[in-house]
Design goal:
Length: 368
Amino acid sequence: MAANPALFDATVRHAVLLEQLKANEVAKFAPFLKELDRKIRAKLSDPDITEYNRKRQEKLLDQIDSILLAIFGRFTDQLQLDLVDLAMYEAQFEASSLNNAAAVATADTAVAVTFEAVLPGAAAIKAAITTNPLSVRGVDGGKLLEAFIEGWTQTERQRVVGAIRQGFFEGQTTTQIIQAIRGTKAQQYKDGILAVTDRNASAVVRTAVQHVASQARMETLKANSDVVKEVEWVSTLDSRTTITCKTLDGQRFPVDSGPRPPIHINCRSTVVPITKFSKLFSQGATRASKGADGGKQVSASLSYYEWLKTQPASFQDQALGVARAKLFRDGGLSAERFAQMQLDRNFSPLTLEEIRQLEPLAFERAGI
């Protein structure tokens, strides 16, 4: 069975809109970051602060940590509410997409398709986003949504308080301590600890949004497992896509098992349902790509590596790295075989040396 064009196009367009929603959600952190900056500076405003004894310094640090806890708490409370609203919307989107796909099947083929998608209840959707672990690999792998978000806030609080404590220990001036927190004007305040907090907030929010959208959609698909048997992984066709998502692109998994986006922090991939009435559709779905010549539509049947074969060597080098790209071009490997060698059974990228053990002749042919 193939993914039908209407369902594929709707899902990919929706993924683009989801990226815009992520940006909007990230922007909501800005006023909280300004409040952090303002209140930390206020607590460090006493010019004699570096002369405090150890007990008094620790009391001040406890006060600052309490301020951070309160500010982060208000932000994450707002984020959690937004994520629940998003989950309900995503579940409804998936149900509507399935209904529309069935309607298009009837219109395009004159074959009557009687189908009404089942929409899971709100409790089931909320349970899915909160009790299903994130699929990301690495240190955040397997975390539940709440723990993932709380882990970030705890790390940021420890980083700020630790920097101030270190400043006290090293005898830094109040100005130096504040500068370490805020950064320098010459660097547009991008070299301070709060800049790290801001970047990490973006990564956490984007990943949380992706997890919620993915799990809510999957809950709807599983509720319609009489029609949806599989999902197909769809990655973004550009040079920023990770090795993991490049390789997963086009792979199919049962509707109730297998990896789901986000597979890593800041993941942009999505999945498209493969329905039992997909065979009623003609081919013709397209997907957006951004190669060396800019953005264009290409056949949805192309996997990432098949698409990359159409790009010039310079773009392949940018997307894969010079050595891996040379193997890709000159190793005599098909796009399918190259993809098979990129990940281990846990979907973690293999090193070039590990790949060499699998295909030593390909390395000889490529001269690496």
